[in-house]
Amino acid sequence: MAKKSKSKLTKYAVLHKSPALAGTLPNTRLFSKRSLYKFLDRYKKVIAKPASGSGGAGVILITGRRHSKYRVQRGTKSRTTHGKKETYRYLRKKVKSSYLVQRGISLARIHGSPFDVRVMVQRKPGEAWVVTGMLAKVAGRGYIITNVKRSGGKVLPLATAIRCSTIKGTSGSAIMACLRRVALLAAHRLAGYYTKQRFFGLDMGIDSSGKVWIIEANLRPDITLFLKLADKTMYHTIVSYRK
Question: Which of 87, 114, 187, 207 could form a disulfide with 129 if both were Cys (CB 3.0 to 4.6 A apart)?
């Protein structure tokens, strides 16, 4: 049997074939001059990131400015490029492995820092998929990535994060219900491809209007994030499902 691809683009393609999920996925393509130019023309924010790997390594944010200028940020460092051609040349020097371009989502913020949501979806043999944990990952000051270790960020209970955030017009309970529903749909879809997988860690975003997005799916999610919460209930639930 052929080995299943763990590429982020493969997971995106599997999820995108679901009509119920397609609208929750930011447009994603392989990095090339053509795809970068198309994305820069279409979106105010564009993310360039490795096609594989985790932990927020190598993620670059390109933000359109006036007069054909772009702000290119990696870590806490940024520079301004002039025009698409110079932007592509600069990125080409930084991009050494296989990369993707993705529509940048304007994530909701807490005290100026973006946050996203880790949703754990698991199942026991012969049983249904269950959401076993959700928490918010808040980027460290000045960072665009929410990886707690890499950016020096923090985790928060999700209800607390939503309440303290820039999200307007949607209740926290409605957002959390939507996150659960979308995560379960995603797990069902991914399980059709990764047939032996019994758990997924979904990185999901919420924009300031309360819309939910699937940023990417992880096959080997770090469950120790849940140990950082004061309440360890979700961590113990996650561990019980992995036995």
Answer: 187
